[in-house]
């Protein structure tokens, strides 16, 4: 089966002049006033159906001729919207196909309009690659409200769809070679340059850790590089691309492998973010680096207690072959630091400890620069993309030093695994403006605008934060 196209599905709004039906949006506190204004036409129907304006509630409105006259959806109150972002998407996905426009009982703030519009796009995502005979239903399309940045929302959604498509594709159809194909296609789409270092060339060009992790697979390891833009500040993104992780010789149990097709979620998310940046033609120079490997078993597999000299010259004792993500990122971050850049940001599905700490819905991050962290927090709120800062806690630095080598890839400390992993990576990111994300990349169950399966985390927050981070 061919590698996935970019993307498999394109989100779309309705044309600005398309005939459309109204979707009224009402908060519970506004409901009685709305019913009084609706009069005999709709009020008895809404009362009879028990519509309560709770978040995501939907009631279709019949016209006098028996045709559909519109619909009303509940906005819930501010607390409900805070507890469940994109909750309005439950109503959107229940709407009949066709064109709709938003209507409000009272003027709506721009932030609310933008959030509803983004939820509408994200809720339209479908992953139907392996169900080609499934009959597609006509989607409900939104006529974008005035004042909403349509191009920006489309860029966000399209980048997110790319991320989801890549994560959702199983490993037999998305190994290092297929990820390279998707990466190269992304570069070509936006006129970026790309290059690839494969197989034993990694050793020849001094990427020993990437080679060591991926050499056991018949699908050769590789380092993917994209460069785009000619003016403005320089941003370097690094995404972990472990296309499948068995754990290597420190083999995972069967249950631990069930989600390992998503271990390239950092690569998928940085590719989605890169797509957003290039689609919006932001005034910056972008460099995207993705080490792409499979962590599997064969006679030449990486072994526990191997000591490998990294690209940076630091020696690493491999105390767990299942802690491979930080190894491939180490060489890549060292390479990223060799070129002058204004910021380095890495994203990886790196540790189970991060999930224990914050669960699947939050993207924990580490930042060396306070201004970058402040910009990210603001961008996360605006992008409905929650993040949570964790510290580069200096007191844990000795934990990652095994004594026999410079660094230990899996210290037996028993605590703070996400923090010690971040400290390990920081040793290779020789830059004062380094930021790291330890994401999950997966929705464990269906949620509004986020179906079960692959999902991006932190990309919209970063996109919104880039002006503050880089002075755009």
From TrEMBL:
Keyword tags: Aminopeptidase, Hydrolase, Manganese, Protease
Pfam families the UniProt entry points to: Peptidase_M17 (PF00883), Peptidase_M17_N_1 (PF21337)
Domain Cytosol aminopeptidase intervals: 162-462
Lineage of the species this protein comes from: Bacteria, Pseudomonadati, Pseudomonadota, Alphaproteobacteria, Rhodobacterales
Manganese as UniProt keyword: yes
Name of this protein: Leucyl aminopeptidase family protein
Top-level taxon: Bacteria
Family per record: Belongs to the peptidase M17 family.
Listed GO MF terms: aminopeptidase activity
InterPro entries: Leucine_aapep/pepB, Macro_dom-like, Peptidase_M17_C, Peptidase_M17_N_1
Biological source species: Pseudogemmobacter faecipullorum
Domain M17 aminopeptidase N-terminal: 22-145
SUPFAM superfamilies registered for this protein in UniProt: Macro domain-like, Zn-dependent exopeptidases
Record carries keyword Hydrolase: yes
